[in-house]
Amino acid sequence: MPAAERQRFFVLLSTHAFRGEDLSHEELFGHLSGDEFTAEEAVEYLEVSMSTFRRHVASGKLQPSVTVGRSQLFAVADLKRFKKALKLAKG
User: Fold this and answer.
1) Cα separation of 44 and 41, whole Å?
2) How is the chain split into domains, by residue range?
């Protein structure tokens, strides 16, 4: 998770920690649904190494949503689906 998002995450958690409320995934991360991550941010979000991430991209398992020159951006919604698939594959 990128540092700025990690900070927002912990602020939200601490704000609601003692109210007895459980926040949904959408409440915590809903603001990211339309965003795009750089490869470095995607690696951190997926919790994989850069080489593993590049292999997934090269094999077509992950597609960049935008390519500008050599830079690629990846849609958060696609990364979320891919992360779920990775967790299911691991069991």
Assistant:
1) 5
2) 1-32, 35-91
- Give the pLDDT mean for 13-20: 65
CATH architecture of 35-91: Orthogonal Bundle (1.10)
Phi, psi for residue 63 in degrees, rounded to 5: -120, 135
For residue 51, what are its two tokens? 């080489």
Residue 32 and residue 5 in contact, taking contact as beta carbons nearer than 8 Å:
yes
pLDDT of residue 11: 77
Nearest to 1 by CA among 9, 63, 56: 9
Q: Using CA atoms, how far apart are residues 28 and 5, in angstroms rounded to an integer?
A: 10
Beta strands in the chain (DSSP E): 36-38, 66-68, 71-75
